[in-house]
Design brief:
By secondary structure, the chain is α+β, with helices and mostly antiparallel strands. Helices cover 24% and strands 26% of the residues.
Length: 338
């Protein structure tokens, strides 16, 4: 399992280089060839043992949500824009690292004592937030950072409770870690491990990979919303922590092949692997781009449920992570039977 190492790396959408370098080093001994395209996707190819001429593509995205510097004020504070879907309410007072040199900073807002009664009733807006890097003024700040620098959350990986893990970027370093664990697996079909970029800003990397590889079947390995928390009505509980790997039937970007999903669900339950269905249709993932590429590609999605997704502190159950890994391993071995 590579979760601790992967989540420590910073890879806000558009700047995934450190994640890609780590993954490239890990995949190199186990693959027949590696390709990195102009967008930055990493494709690792491995020949199947049956020479079927068919390809199974496993896909996970390397990027994470974050911020980008849009302006430096005269006082030396950094104004920013969100990269990916972020709720401004989770940003205030969070520690961040800015730019390639990872200058420490904290996201600030006017103190509650200074907010008007009306402002106290409203959720903060991104335009009213800033990053404080301790600069004296604009000139001082510009010695360290520049407009266009990416800003990543500073949040270390911690295990706690009943086999739980807290970290940033588990969406989707969890999927990347699963794929790294599966590199030694043998498959009758050829395998392509696609580590994609810019999923969080429009499934951009996956579009290129799907057209390039044109697999007969694709499996997207993801992290997805887990809403088994206080204040969530029963009809809005998408997945439950500890409930196993989450299989999707439909989401905001894809309608999955029901027969294939049910076949994988059956194989998993027969193998004693804990599985559940994602019960809401919100959100989406790289499957949205893959399933409509190259004339249409049958695509499955198996996800690790994650509380507080798209925040500095995602929480997953390691038992769910292991279930996702085992479902993916099962598909690789039984690909002809799905």
């Amino acid at each position: 399992m590579y979760l601790s190492e992967l989540t420590a790396l910073h890879g806000v959408s558009g700047e995934e280089s450190s994640v890609r370098a780590f993954i490239q080093e890990k995949v190199a001994p186990f693959c027949d060839r590696i390709e990195i395209d102009t967008m930055g996707n990493l494709l690792a190819f491995k020949k199947g043992y049956a020479e079927t001429g068919k390809t199974l593509m496993l896909c996970a995205h390397m990027d994470e949500v974050g911020l980008i510097v849009s302006r430096i004020t005269e006082e030396g504070f950094l104004k920013f824009k969100a990269v990916g879907g972020l709720d401004p309410r989770v940003l205030v007072s969070k520690r961040v690292l800015v730019g390639k040199n990872q200058y420490a900073g904290v996201i600030g807002r006017k103190a509650i004592h200074l907010l008007s009664p009306e402002e106290r009733k409203q959720a903060p807006k991104t335009k009213n937030l800033y990053v404080d890097i301790g600069a004296k003024n604009k000139k001082d700040a510009e010695k360290r950072v520049a407009i266009g620098d990416y800003i990543a959350f500073d949040s270390r990986c911690v295990t706690f409770g009943d086999n739980l893990m807290k970290a940033k970027a588990l969406d989707d370093r969890a999927g990347c870690s699963v794929m790294l664990e599966l590199l030694k697996e043998s498959c009758p079909w050829d395998l392509c491990f696609a580590f994609t970029v810019q999923e969080e800003v429009g499934l951009r990397g996956a579009k290129i990979c799907a057209k390039r590889v044109k697999p007969e079947l694709a499996l997207v390995l993801e992290a997805t919303t887990c809403s088994d928390i206080p204040g969530t009505g029963a009809s809005m509980v998408s997945t439950r922590l500890g409930g196993g790997a989450a299989l999707s039937l439909i989401d905001g970007s894809t309608s999955y092949n029901r027969d294939m999903v049910m076949s994988l669900y059956r194989l998993a339950t027969e193998a004693g692997i804990s599985v559940q269905f994602k019960q809401t249709a919100t959100g989406g993932n790289d499957a949205g781009a893959i399933h409509v590429a190259a004339g249409g590609i049958p695509t499955l999605s198996v996800s690790v449920p994650a509380r507080y997704i798209h925040s500095p502190a995602n929480v997953i159950s390691l038992s769910d992570y292991e279930a996702v890994r085992e479902v993916a391993r099962l598909l690789i071995r039984e690909v002809d039977n799905v």
